[in-house]
Design goal:
The chain has 232 residues and is mainly α. The chain has two domains: 48 residues, no CATH class; 181 residues, Multidrug efflux transporter AcrB transmembrane fold (Up-down Bundle). It contains nine helices and two strands, in the order ββααααααααα. A two-stranded antiparallel sheet has the order 1-2. Helix 4 runs antiparallel to helix 8. It starts with a strand and ends with a helix.
Length: 232
């Protein structure tokens, strides 16, 4: 070589390459497989650096950001509802959204990337809206004198149309981005697919799961005295 490069007091040889098509992470794994098939001395090691290494570090940061987003959303709802139980019920939409997001990513053939994680973080703040509308309506009906089971059924029936309209308008707004219209669409499409899949999955399951969870965990002996006192 024309010069000798050192990183961390160790001699290195940098081999650069670009991924022609496909996912960067998969390209890095394929490169490691090819390097492992080449015989080399015991004191020689190889690793992937550059953009692949930076992307792995970004994944770690985004996972922490996703966890922080979940915690902050829960704390905000706990302060608004003045309850620790009702926000817990609402947070059930997060795993429901994850089911839809994973299914959407799989069907669209999208690889896990930084943009997908950004879409997941956005999804946390979006999917809870439907559950908030539903739980708030159920609480108001209970304050008006309805028993828990009747309030859950009536609230779900009354909030069905607003929840569906909100979801449909959001999905239609993201549809051009998901289709890939415009320049640099390859950066926006995975995020839009993640949000659309998660939102559709969360909406369909929220209308069934959230009322059931509310009815199971919010027993009258736990919160019934609060609603009785409010009606009095």
């Amino acid at each position: 070589p024309a010069d000798i490069q050192r990183i961390g007091q160790k001699r290195v040889a940098v081999v650069s390459a670009h991924v022609d098509h496909g996912d960067l992470a998969l390209g890095g794994e394929e490169a490691l497989g090819l390097l492992a098939a080449i015989p080399h001395p015991p004191n020689v090691t190889s690793r992937i650096s550059g953009q692949a290494e930076e992307m792995e570090a970004s994944f770690t940061s985004l996972q922490l950001a996703l966890l922080l987003a979940l915690i902050l959303v829960y704390l905000v709802m706990a302060s608004l509802f003045e309850s620790l139980l009702h926000p817990f019920v609402i947070m059930f939409t997060a795993p429901l959204a994850a089911i839809g997001a994973v299914l959407g990513i799989y069907l669209a053939g999208v690889s896990i990337s930084v943009v997908v994680f950004i879409g997941a973080i956005l999804l946390v703040g979006i999917v809870v809206n439907n559950a908030i509308v539903l739980v708030d309506r159920v609480n108001r009906l209970r304050l008006e004198g309805l028993d828990r089971r009747t309030a859950v059924i009536t609230g779900a029936r009354q909030r069905f149309r607003p929840i569906m309209m909100t979801t449909i308008t959001t999905v239609l707004g993201l549809l051009p981005m998901a289709i890939g219209l415009g320049e640099a669409s390859e950066l926006r499409t995975p995020m839009a697919i993640t949000v659309i899949g998660g939102l559709l999955g969360a909406t369909l399951l929220t209308l069934v799961v959230i009322p059931v969870v509310y009815d199971l965990v919010d027993r009258k002996q736990i919160h019934g005295d609060v609603f009785e006192e409010a009606r009095a």
